[in-house]
Specification:
The chain is mainly α. It contains three helices and no strands. It has a domain at 7-79. It has helices at residues 7-43, 50-73, 102-108.
């Protein structure tokens, strides 16, 4: 199958993007939770449990930011095939019936 050597790297890039998007979503939820706690704290400064919830949310935010920074540091690069110089390049067209091995021949070339 053409491009077999590149599919694993593309899959890794896609999985990394999904992980980063999930971390960003969780970080946004945590920031919203902190904002909600701050609003409740402004209304009733002596409310019990707000301080503990605020510390828990702040700890979660710091953890998510660290994971996001870690994901940003990872470099998932797609390795492209080496370029073939024009003088060494050959063009051909493979013609034949279905299931005759055209793709296998093309991959071998």
């Amino acid at each position: 199958m053409p491009g077999n050597q590149f599919w694993p790297q593309l899959r890794q890039q896609d999985e990394k993007k999904q992980r980063v998007d999930e971390l960003k979503r969780k970080l946004k939820e945590t920031e919203d939770k902190l904002a909600e706690i701050a609003k409740e704290e402004a209304k009733t400064p002596e409310a019990e449990g707000l301080h503990a919830r605020k510390e828990e949310a702040a700890g979660m935010k710091a953890q998510l930011e660290a994971q996001l920074a870690e994901q940003d540091q990872e470099q998932a690069e797609v390795k492209m095939p080496p370029n073939v110089k024009d003088k060494d390049r050959l063009n051909l067209i493979l013609i034949g019936p279905e299931k005759s091995g055209k793709t296998s021949v093309a991959n071998y070339l």
